[in-house]
Design goal:
Radius of gyration: 16 Å
Protein name: Universal stress protein
Largest sheet: 5 strands, parallel
Number of helices: 6
CATH superfamily: HUPs
Oligomer: single chain
Distance between the termini: 28 Å
CATH class: Alpha Beta
Helix content: 40-55%
Strand order of the largest sheet: 3-2-1-4-5
Order of helices and strands: EHEHHEHEHHE
InterPro entries: Rossmann-like_a/b/a_fold, UspA
CATH topology: Rossmann fold
Family: Belongs to the universal stress protein A family.
Length: about 150
């Protein structure tokens, strides 16, 4: 169905990450590519002095390890790409760079900041040059999972 899928995963719910990765694996063509992506949002310069010097490097390495381990556990071959920047822009740029034909994301419960600033998902949908699939199923609506560790944080 799709040659290259960008699978955007946050570091929150393991259940959501599992669901997105399984969906990507089901949708990718044989011989196709899945690029599991996490974007660490830019930190305003005024806060950089309050953080350890290696904060960004540590955050990138930590996210890469967690995502690679999850892919191995699920038996899903994927390339892991962690970037720093504005999430929507980074996802759209990566899709363009890899000639992706699908970006797979999960939505969250909207709050007031989404109405004021617009959500990441909305920005990706508006600016992506490829199809975007939005998983809208909230984790609490899925019922019981097969393994207890599937429900914790990533």
């Amino acid at each position: 169905m799709y040659r290259t899928i960008i699978c955007g995963i946050g570091m929150g719910s393991r259940q959501t990450a599992n669901r997105l990765l399984r969906r990507a694996a089901a949708l990718v063509d044989e011989g196709g590519n899945i690029v599991v992506t996490h974007v660490i949002e830019n930190i305003p310069h005024r806060h950089l002095t309050e953080l350890p010097e290696a904060f960004e490097t540590t955050a990138i390495v930590d996210a890469e390890k967690k995502l690679a381990a999850l892919c191995r556990e699920l038996g899903i071959p994927a390339r892991v790409e962690v970037r720093i920047g504005v999430a929507a822009s980074a996802l759209v740029a990566l899709a363009r760079e890899t000639s992706a034909d699908l970006i797979l994301l999960s939505s969250h419960v909207s709050d007031i900041t989404d109405y004021v600033f617009s959500s990441i998902v909305e920005k990706v949908v508006r600016h992506a040059g490829c199809s975007v699939l939005i998983d809208r199923r909230p984790d609490h609506a899925e019922g019981l999972t097969s393994r207890a560790e599937d429900t914790g944080p990533l």
